[in-house]
Each structure stands twice: as structure tokens, then as C-alpha cells.
Specification:
454 residues, Rossmann fold, Ribosomal Protein S5, domain 2, 9-stranded mixed β-sheet, 12 helices, 27% helix, 27% strand, binds zinc ion
Length: 454
Amino acid sequence: MAKAKTYYFCQECGYQSSNWLGRCPECGKFGTFAEEVVKATSSPAIKHSGKQAFSTPKKIQDVTYGETKRIPTHCGEFDRVLGGGIVPGSLLLLGGEPGIGKSTLLLQTALAIRDRKLLYVSGEESEQQIKMRADRIGEPQADLYVVSETVTQRIFEHVEAVQPDLLIVDSIQTISTEDIDSPSGSVSQIRQCTSEFQHYAKTTGVPVLLIGHITKDGTLAGPKVMEHIVDAVLQFEGDRNYGYRILRALKNRFGSTAEIGIFEMLGTGLREVPNPSEFLLSQRDETLSGAAVAATVEGARPMFIEVQSLVSSAVYGTPQRNANGFDMRRLSMLLAVLEKRCGFKLGAKDVFLNIAGGLRVNDPAIDLAVACSVLSSNVDIAISPRICFAAELGLSGEVRPVSRVEQRIAEADRLGFEKIFISKYNERSLDRRRYNIEIVAVSVIEEAFRALFA
Ligand SMILES: [Zn+2]
């Protein structure tokens, strides 16, 4: 009989200790330790004889690369983020808030993969519920097996029976191993179960896709503990009030983390959005103050999005600041720059900022559009919807250059914009004759203000 032992785990970062600690030496948080009972076992938890050992030592001359046969998912946006399909033997984590559509994304992917045998394990739903959801999405293109199961020992029995080419587990928080007594979703369970799936993936070459829930305030430690173990961490994000979803790679051992995938959530599943700009800009035909279009680039792909601001006199003593899809600290900084360097009195105003579609953008080139949208609302003069912006703002109000400016201009040209505002420092290397669009190069924010509203 295995001996039970008690350990204390930091619920924030997964640090393990044999006694309770007030402050975690790993992440520095206070009061995060919780007791979990771990049963020590002598035998390895996983046994699988069916598949040949995936990795054997090779002479370095015999090691080849660049030809790893990835499994294409037949979902362009998903493949783009993965770097061209699923790598054999890899362990992937798909994280995101509950209800954002992670299960739909993976079920849809499972349905679309061709000529493979897939096993979809769900600890969240029954087989009937999975079937009902699958029926709404589409027909399976491959041998897709589904099972409702929560214990890893049983899951590996199913794996043994089915011998899948790809294993999907929804979600890691509902899965537990018999080796540990603590409840599913606890740090020790998540860590142990993830390790078991990793061992399975590495020894058989069968890739494993895990779903992990992340709450908005990041209280669930699971995904953080897993990040070190898995080969890739994909995050599925978006505003639940909007239809758009972004798939991002936060970590990817087999590809870049710069690419994003964009989807639209429909009743019938997720629709890929290969040309986000046309999609996100199509809604505006009237000219309203407070709106400005940013020519951003996410990964290698240009994405034009609308920034909306509302600036009004503060009704209550303390001015309110709210940003949806944009970093609050960045907004505060931009407002301070506009106030200090350009003399726009925003200190006593409420400022609300919204990125259309609920998208979150990391590209600093959105700064100028944000600043101009705030200014537009403040003076109540609309910016033409045929004008777009691509520049970063510095602390002294200087308009700074951004990467890939030619690509942004070319895309603006293609989408039919009449004018694009860029930094003077981006202008030097530019061949204006190549574009029909008017390029306005500015060096400080006041110049942009005068050009737009004077
Ligand atoms: Zn910690």
C-alpha cells in the first residue's frame, strides 16, 4: 500500500514545501499555501505497450530536422498559430477563461482533422453533450472517439484500446490521478496529471492537447504550473460580449509566438477570419467624433481596427478612466502626455476607451490612433473614416517610428484609405511613389492635432 504524505503547495505558482509557509519563496505571495495529500507510489502510473518507443538515441549525423511531419489541423488560423500543424509527441495547453469557447475550438479542430484516429476525453461533458455540440459544428472528417472520463488511469486504458494519433483532454482541472488524494484542480493533481500526459506524448509520439481554465484574476494556479511542462501554451481570448476571439501562442517550442489566429464565434461554431481588417472596419459609414483607425500588425499580418473614445466632463469629483481592450496604464500615460506636452486639459475629464470588437492589441503602433481618438472626442470633431494611424507615442509627445511601416501603408492603400499618419523617422526610407495613399509624416503629437482639427 502506498504511503500518504502531506505537502504544502503555493496555489499561485505551484511551489512545493513540506511545511506551511506564510510567504512563498518562489513567487513572493503571502498566504497562498494549501495542504495537499500526495500518495507516494512505487510503480509508474502509466503503462502503454501498444506503441513503439518514440525516441531512441541517434548519432548526431543521423539527426534530421525541418521535416518533422506535423499533423495539419485543416484550420488555417489554428495552424498559423502553431507554426504549421501539430508536432508529433508534443504537449499543448490551450488556456482561457471559462465559456470563451476553448472546447468548441478543439472539438471543431478534432472534427476537421483528416485521416487520423482521434480520442477526445472530456471531464466536463457527457458523450451525449459532446455529440450534440459536434452536430451543430459539422461532420467528423476522421475517426473521432469521445469518452467522458476524469481519472488518468482510466484515460490511459481508453488510449490503450483506441490507439489514437491525437489525444485531446478537456479540461486538465477536471482530471485526477489515483496516486494523489487531493481533489482534481489542485496544484499537485494538475502537475502530476500534466506530467503523465507529457510522459505519454514523449514516449509514444502521440501529441496531446490539454484545455486549462484561467480565471480573470488569475487565481487558478494550474496553467502556471503547467507552463513549464508543456511545449506550447496557446491562449484563447476575447470579450464574451463580442463575437471575436483571438488565439495567441504565449510559448511555442516549435514556432514563433508572434502569430495570432482570429475567429468569429457563431451559433454553428467558430468561423476563421483570414482578413480581419475588412471585417473590423466594415461597420462604420458615418463620421462620429472619438473614432480613429489604427493600422496595427499582429504577427506578420496587418490588422486595421477602430479605436473609440468618449471624453466628457467628470460628473463626480474623481475623473473616471476606463479602457476596454487597451492597457489602462498605457492609457494613463498617453493622457498625461496629451495633458502635459500639448496642453489639453484632460485631468478633470472622464475618459472611456474602447477597441472595436473587444480585441486586445499588443502593437505599440496603436498609440497615435488612441491619442487622436481621445483628442477628437475632446474637441468633438470627427476624423474621416478614410484616415488611419500607425505610430507610437513617446513621453515627450514625440511621434515614434514603428516596425513594418511599408506593410501597414500598403495595406491601408489596398483597403482604400486616403491618408495615413506615420512618424517622420519612418518616412526616410520610404518610397512614396509606390503608394496612392497620402502619407502624412509627423514628429510630435501637436502636428497631428493641427493637421486633423485646425
Ligand atoms: Zn508561489
